[in-house]
Write a structure and sequence with these properties.
3-stranded antiparallel sheet; about 325 residues; 4-stranded mixed sheet; paralog of FGE (formylglycine-generating enzyme); 14 strands; 5 helices; binds zinc ion; alpha+beta
Length: about 325
Protein backbone atom coordinates (compact mmCIF):
# COMPACT_ATOMS: atom_id res chain seq x y z
CA UNK A 1 0.00 0.00 0.00
CA UNK A 2 2.72 2.42 0.97
CA UNK A 3 4.63 1.83 -2.26
CA UNK A 4 1.44 2.25 -4.22
CA UNK A 5 0.72 5.55 -2.48
CA UNK A 6 4.21 6.84 -3.06
CA UNK A 7 3.89 5.87 -6.72
CA UNK A 8 0.59 7.75 -6.96
CA UNK A 9 2.13 10.74 -5.24
CA UNK A 10 5.07 10.70 -7.62
CA UNK A 11 2.73 10.58 -10.61
CA UNK A 12 0.75 13.46 -9.14
CA UNK A 13 3.86 15.53 -8.58
CA UNK A 14 5.03 14.88 -12.13
CA UNK A 15 1.63 15.88 -13.48
CA UNK A 16 1.09 18.88 -11.27
CA UNK A 17 1.71 22.50 -12.10
CA UNK A 18 1.78 25.06 -9.26
CA UNK A 19 -1.81 26.06 -9.97
CA UNK A 20 -3.20 22.60 -10.63
CA UNK A 21 -5.02 22.29 -7.32
CA UNK A 22 -6.89 19.26 -8.56
CA UNK A 23 -3.73 17.18 -8.57
CA UNK A 24 -2.84 17.71 -4.90
CA UNK A 25 -4.47 14.49 -3.76
CA UNK A 26 -2.93 12.29 -6.40
CA UNK A 27 -5.07 10.70 -9.03
CA UNK A 28 -6.78 7.37 -9.08
CA UNK A 29 -6.94 5.90 -12.53
CA UNK A 30 -9.69 3.35 -11.95
CA UNK A 31 -13.01 4.61 -10.69
CA UNK A 32 -15.11 2.51 -8.35
CA UNK A 33 -18.53 1.31 -9.45
CA UNK A 34 -21.42 3.72 -9.09
CA UNK A 35 -23.22 3.57 -5.76
CA UNK A 36 -26.40 1.49 -5.94
CA UNK A 37 -29.59 1.89 -3.97
CA UNK A 38 -29.70 0.41 -0.49
CA UNK A 39 -32.09 -2.39 0.31
CA UNK A 40 -34.74 -2.11 3.01
CA UNK A 41 -36.24 0.96 4.59
CA UNK A 42 -34.81 3.54 6.93
CA UNK A 43 -36.38 4.24 10.29
CA UNK A 44 -37.21 7.87 11.05
CA UNK A 45 -34.71 9.82 13.10
CA UNK A 46 -35.20 10.13 16.83
CA UNK A 47 -33.99 13.60 17.84
CA UNK A 48 -33.09 13.32 21.50
CA UNK A 49 -33.76 16.94 22.49
CA UNK A 50 -31.19 18.92 24.44
CA UNK A 51 -28.04 16.85 24.30
CA UNK A 52 -24.55 17.66 25.48
CA UNK A 53 -21.51 16.23 23.81
CA UNK A 54 -18.75 15.71 26.35
CA UNK A 55 -15.17 15.24 25.25
CA UNK A 56 -13.22 14.18 28.33
CA UNK A 57 -9.92 12.44 28.82
CA UNK A 58 -9.70 11.55 25.15
CA UNK A 59 -13.16 10.06 24.60
CA UNK A 60 -16.52 11.39 23.43
CA UNK A 61 -19.86 10.72 25.13
CA UNK A 62 -23.36 12.21 25.17
CA UNK A 63 -25.58 13.19 28.09
CA UNK A 64 -28.98 14.85 28.39
CA UNK A 65 -30.35 17.31 30.96
CA UNK A 66 -28.20 19.87 32.75
CA UNK A 67 -24.89 20.98 31.27
CA UNK A 68 -22.15 18.69 32.58
CA UNK A 69 -19.61 20.28 34.89
CA UNK A 70 -15.89 19.78 34.72
CA UNK A 71 -15.03 16.52 36.52
CA UNK A 72 -13.31 16.65 39.91
CA UNK A 73 -11.01 13.76 39.06
CA UNK A 74 -9.03 12.49 36.09
CA UNK A 75 -7.93 8.88 35.58
CA UNK A 76 -4.30 8.27 34.69
CA UNK A 77 -4.16 6.62 31.26
CA UNK A 78 -1.00 4.72 32.27
CA UNK A 79 -1.92 3.26 35.68
CA UNK A 80 -5.62 4.18 36.19
CA UNK A 81 -4.83 6.12 39.38
CA UNK A 82 -7.49 8.74 40.14
CA UNK A 83 -5.99 12.23 40.36
CA UNK A 84 -7.54 15.60 41.14
CA UNK A 85 -8.45 17.40 37.90
CA UNK A 86 -6.13 20.28 38.70
CA UNK A 87 -3.09 17.96 38.72
CA UNK A 88 -0.90 17.88 35.63
CA UNK A 89 0.99 14.68 36.45
CA UNK A 90 -0.12 11.35 37.99
CA UNK A 91 0.54 11.15 41.74
CA UNK A 92 1.25 7.41 41.40
CA UNK A 93 3.38 6.99 38.27
CA UNK A 94 4.22 10.54 37.21
CA UNK A 95 2.71 10.23 33.72
CA UNK A 96 1.32 13.38 32.10
CA UNK A 97 -2.45 13.48 32.59
CA UNK A 98 -4.76 13.89 29.59
CA UNK A 99 -7.33 16.49 30.59
CA UNK A 100 -9.01 17.60 27.38
CA UNK A 101 -12.49 18.56 28.48
CA UNK A 102 -14.98 20.27 26.23
CA UNK A 103 -18.75 20.35 26.59
CA UNK A 104 -20.81 21.60 23.70
CA UNK A 105 -24.48 21.56 22.94
CA UNK A 106 -25.13 19.07 20.18
CA UNK A 107 -28.29 17.72 18.64
CA UNK A 108 -28.13 13.97 18.44
CA UNK A 109 -29.75 11.99 15.65
CA UNK A 110 -30.24 8.27 15.19
CA UNK A 111 -30.59 6.59 11.81
CA UNK A 112 -31.00 2.82 11.73
CA UNK A 113 -29.39 2.64 15.17
CA UNK A 114 -26.39 4.80 14.28
CA UNK A 115 -25.95 7.95 16.38
CA UNK A 116 -24.43 11.15 15.05
CA UNK A 117 -24.31 14.70 16.44
CA UNK A 118 -24.71 18.17 14.96
CA UNK A 119 -23.09 21.14 16.72
CA UNK A 120 -24.94 24.50 16.59
CA UNK A 121 -22.67 27.25 15.25
CA UNK A 122 -23.74 30.78 16.12
CA UNK A 123 -23.44 33.04 13.10
CA UNK A 124 -20.95 35.90 12.94
CA UNK A 125 -18.35 37.76 10.92
CA UNK A 126 -14.83 36.53 10.37
CA UNK A 127 -11.88 37.03 8.04
CA UNK A 128 -11.79 34.24 5.45
CA UNK A 129 -8.68 33.21 3.53
CA UNK A 130 -5.00 34.02 3.91
CA UNK A 131 -4.91 35.61 7.38
CA UNK A 132 -1.57 36.26 9.06
CA UNK A 133 -1.42 33.11 11.22
CA UNK A 134 -1.68 30.98 8.06
CA UNK A 135 1.95 31.91 7.39
CA UNK A 136 3.92 31.43 4.20
CA UNK A 137 2.19 28.21 3.13
CA UNK A 138 -0.77 30.06 1.61
CA UNK A 139 -1.65 29.65 -2.07
CA UNK A 140 -2.81 32.48 -4.34
CA UNK A 141 -6.36 31.14 -4.35
CA UNK A 142 -6.59 31.83 -0.58
CA UNK A 143 -6.20 35.56 -1.33
CA UNK A 144 -7.37 38.15 -0.68
CA UNK A 145 -8.32 37.66 2.95
CA UNK A 146 -11.79 39.15 3.16
CA UNK A 147 -14.57 39.71 5.70
CA UNK A 148 -17.45 37.26 5.51
CA UNK A 149 -20.64 37.06 7.56
CA UNK A 150 -22.39 33.72 7.92
CA UNK A 151 -25.79 33.02 9.47
CA UNK A 152 -26.24 30.45 12.23
CA UNK A 153 -26.17 26.82 11.15
CA UNK A 154 -25.25 23.39 12.51
CA UNK A 155 -22.34 21.23 11.43
CA UNK A 156 -21.42 17.61 12.03
CA UNK A 157 -19.35 17.14 15.15
CA UNK A 158 -17.37 14.54 13.21
CA UNK A 159 -16.84 13.56 9.62
CA UNK A 160 -19.51 11.18 8.31
CA UNK A 161 -18.49 7.76 9.56
CA UNK A 162 -18.60 4.51 7.65
CA UNK A 163 -21.32 3.19 9.97
CA UNK A 164 -23.52 6.20 9.18
CA UNK A 165 -22.92 5.87 5.44
CA UNK A 166 -23.71 2.15 5.69
CA UNK A 167 -26.90 2.83 7.68
CA UNK A 168 -28.17 5.25 5.04
CA UNK A 169 -26.82 3.76 1.79
CA UNK A 170 -26.51 0.07 2.58
CA UNK A 171 -22.92 -0.07 1.36
CA UNK A 172 -19.44 1.04 2.37
CA UNK A 173 -17.05 2.08 -0.39
CA UNK A 174 -14.16 2.95 1.97
CA UNK A 175 -10.62 1.74 1.42
CA UNK A 176 -9.71 1.72 5.13
CA UNK A 177 -12.51 -0.22 6.78
CA UNK A 178 -13.74 0.66 10.29
CA UNK A 179 -17.21 1.61 11.59
CA UNK A 180 -15.94 4.75 13.35
CA UNK A 181 -13.51 5.75 10.63
CA UNK A 182 -14.60 8.43 8.16
CA UNK A 183 -16.16 7.20 4.94
CA UNK A 184 -13.96 7.85 1.87
CA UNK A 185 -13.99 7.06 -1.84
CA UNK A 186 -17.26 8.98 -2.09
CA UNK A 187 -17.73 11.52 -4.88
CA UNK A 188 -19.62 14.80 -4.54
CA UNK A 189 -22.36 13.18 -6.62
CA UNK A 190 -22.44 10.19 -4.25
CA UNK A 191 -22.82 12.64 -1.35
CA UNK A 192 -25.93 14.16 -2.97
CA UNK A 193 -27.52 10.70 -3.11
CA UNK A 194 -26.53 10.09 0.51
CA UNK A 195 -28.12 13.42 1.53
CA UNK A 196 -31.31 12.65 -0.40
CA UNK A 197 -31.71 9.34 1.44
CA UNK A 198 -30.73 10.77 4.82
CA UNK A 199 -33.29 13.56 4.44
CA UNK A 200 -35.97 11.11 3.34
CA UNK A 201 -35.28 9.09 6.48
CA UNK A 202 -35.11 12.01 8.91
CA UNK A 203 -37.43 14.60 7.42
CA UNK A 204 -34.61 17.14 7.84
CA UNK A 205 -32.63 19.14 5.31
CA UNK A 206 -29.08 17.93 5.78
CA UNK A 207 -26.64 19.29 3.19
CA UNK A 208 -22.97 19.91 2.64
CA UNK A 209 -21.56 23.05 4.30
CA UNK A 210 -20.75 26.03 2.11
CA UNK A 211 -17.05 26.75 1.88
CA UNK A 212 -17.53 29.86 4.06
CA UNK A 213 -19.46 27.90 6.69
CA UNK A 214 -16.78 25.24 6.67
CA UNK A 215 -13.95 27.70 7.26
CA UNK A 216 -15.90 29.66 9.90
CA UNK A 217 -16.53 26.43 11.86
CA UNK A 218 -12.94 25.23 11.38
CA UNK A 219 -11.70 28.52 12.82
CA UNK A 220 -13.88 28.05 15.91
CA UNK A 221 -16.67 30.48 14.97
CA UNK A 222 -17.26 33.18 17.58
CA UNK A 223 -14.98 31.28 19.99
CA UNK A 224 -12.03 31.37 17.59
CA UNK A 225 -8.55 31.63 19.06
CA UNK A 226 -7.05 32.29 15.60
CA UNK A 227 -5.21 29.00 15.30
CA UNK A 228 -3.40 27.92 12.16
CA UNK A 229 -5.02 24.48 12.23
CA UNK A 230 -8.52 23.68 13.46
CA UNK A 231 -8.19 23.83 17.25
CA UNK A 232 -4.44 24.34 17.67
CA UNK A 233 -1.20 25.77 16.32
CA UNK A 234 0.31 22.35 17.06
CA UNK A 235 -1.06 20.13 14.33
CA UNK A 236 -0.25 16.80 15.99
CA UNK A 237 -2.73 17.42 18.81
CA UNK A 238 -5.72 17.97 16.52
CA UNK A 239 -5.05 16.18 13.23
CA UNK A 240 -4.19 12.89 11.58
CA UNK A 241 -1.88 13.96 8.77
CA UNK A 242 1.07 12.63 6.79
CA UNK A 243 3.59 12.58 9.62
CA UNK A 244 1.44 10.74 12.20
CA UNK A 245 -1.26 8.83 10.29
CA UNK A 246 0.69 5.71 9.36
CA UNK A 247 -0.71 6.14 5.82
CA UNK A 248 -4.34 5.50 6.74
CA UNK A 249 -7.50 7.11 8.17
CA UNK A 250 -8.23 6.93 11.90
CA UNK A 251 -11.48 6.70 13.91
CA UNK A 252 -13.14 10.12 14.16
CA UNK A 253 -12.84 12.17 17.38
CA UNK A 254 -9.58 10.57 18.50
CA UNK A 255 -7.67 13.86 18.38
CA UNK A 256 -8.60 16.97 20.37
CA UNK A 257 -11.58 19.04 19.19
CA UNK A 258 -11.49 22.70 18.17
CA UNK A 259 -12.94 25.69 20.06
CA UNK A 260 -16.51 24.64 19.16
CA UNK A 261 -16.06 20.98 20.10
CA UNK A 262 -15.75 19.86 16.47
CA UNK A 263 -13.26 17.14 15.48
CA UNK A 264 -10.91 16.44 12.58
CA UNK A 265 -11.52 19.57 10.51
CA UNK A 266 -7.77 19.46 9.94
CA UNK A 267 -6.64 16.10 8.55
CA UNK A 268 -8.11 12.55 8.48
CA UNK A 269 -10.10 13.02 5.24
CA UNK A 270 -10.77 15.94 2.91
CA UNK A 271 -14.37 17.11 3.23
CA UNK A 272 -16.60 18.02 0.28
CA UNK A 273 -18.28 21.42 0.42
CA UNK A 274 -21.35 22.51 -1.52
CA UNK A 275 -19.67 25.23 -3.60
CA UNK A 276 -18.31 25.21 -7.10
CA UNK A 277 -14.62 26.09 -7.03
CA UNK A 278 -13.31 29.41 -8.30
CA UNK A 279 -9.61 30.22 -8.00
CA UNK A 280 -10.32 33.98 -8.11
CA UNK A 281 -13.61 33.85 -6.23
CA UNK A 282 -12.29 35.54 -3.08
CA UNK A 283 -11.70 38.73 -5.08
CA UNK A 284 -15.41 39.09 -5.84
CA UNK A 285 -17.12 37.08 -3.11
CA UNK A 286 -20.22 38.64 -1.57
CA UNK A 287 -19.68 39.43 2.11
CA UNK A 288 -22.87 37.82 3.35
CA UNK A 289 -23.35 34.04 3.15
CA UNK A 290 -21.29 33.45 -0.01
CA UNK A 291 -22.18 30.25 -1.84
CA UNK A 292 -19.39 30.15 -4.42
CA UNK A 293 -19.44 30.75 -8.19
CA UNK A 294 -22.69 30.07 -10.01
CA UNK A 295 -21.04 27.40 -12.16
CA UNK A 296 -17.78 25.54 -12.52
CA UNK A 297 -16.03 22.26 -13.22
CA UNK A 298 -14.85 21.35 -9.73
CA UNK A 299 -16.43 21.22 -6.31
CA UNK A 300 -14.54 22.55 -3.28
CA UNK A 301 -13.18 20.28 -0.58
CA UNK A 302 -11.38 21.31 2.57
CA UNK A 303 -9.21 20.35 5.52
CA UNK A 304 -6.46 18.10 4.18
CA UNK A 305 -6.16 14.43 5.07
CA UNK A 306 -4.03 11.62 6.49
CA UNK A 307 -2.06 11.91 3.23
CA UNK A 308 -1.41 15.67 3.51
CA UNK A 309 1.53 17.70 4.71
CA UNK A 310 0.78 20.01 7.64
CA UNK A 311 0.57 23.09 5.42
CA UNK A 312 -2.33 21.58 3.48
CA UNK A 313 -4.33 21.01 6.71
CA UNK A 314 -4.50 24.73 7.59
CA UNK A 315 -7.97 26.22 8.15
CA UNK A 316 -7.79 28.38 5.00
CA UNK A 317 -6.28 25.71 2.73
CA UNK A 318 -8.46 24.87 -0.29
CA UNK A 319 -8.72 22.16 -2.88
CA UNK A 320 -11.28 21.08 -5.48
CA UNK A 321 -12.13 18.04 -7.60
CA UNK A 322 -14.52 16.94 -10.30
CA UNK A 323 -17.94 16.05 -8.81
CA UNK A 324 -17.53 12.41 -9.89
CA UNK A 325 -14.05 12.06 -8.39
CA UNK A 326 -13.44 9.47 -5.66
CA UNK A 327 -10.28 8.90 -3.70
CA UNK A 328 -9.09 7.16 -0.55
CA UNK A 329 -8.71 10.40 1.42
CA UNK A 330 -11.88 12.26 0.41
CA UNK A 331 -15.09 12.18 2.49
CA UNK A 332 -17.66 14.61 3.88
CA UNK A 333 -19.15 16.38 6.89
CA UNK A 334 -22.83 17.28 7.25
CA UNK A 335 -24.41 20.71 7.66
CA UNK A 336 -27.97 21.54 8.69
ZN1 LIG B 1 -0.36 6.91 36.72
Amino acid sequence: MKRYLLFVLLLALLAATPFDVVAQKGRKTKKTTKVVSSKGTLSPSQPAGKTWAVYSNGSLSFTMGAKPQQPSQVDCSSCNQKNTFSSNFCSNCGAKLKKDFIVCEAERFTVNGVIFAMVPVQGGTFTMGATSEQGSDVWDHEKPAHKVTVSSFSIGQTEVTQELWQAVMGNNPSEFKGAKRPVEKVSWDDCQEFLRKLNAATGKHFRLPTEAEWEYAARGGNLSKDYKYSGSNSIGSVAWYYDNSGSQTHPVATKSPNELGIFDMSGNVWEWCQDWYGDKYYGSSPSSNPIGPSSGSYRVNRGGSWFSDAGVCRVSSRDADSPDYRFINLGLRLAL
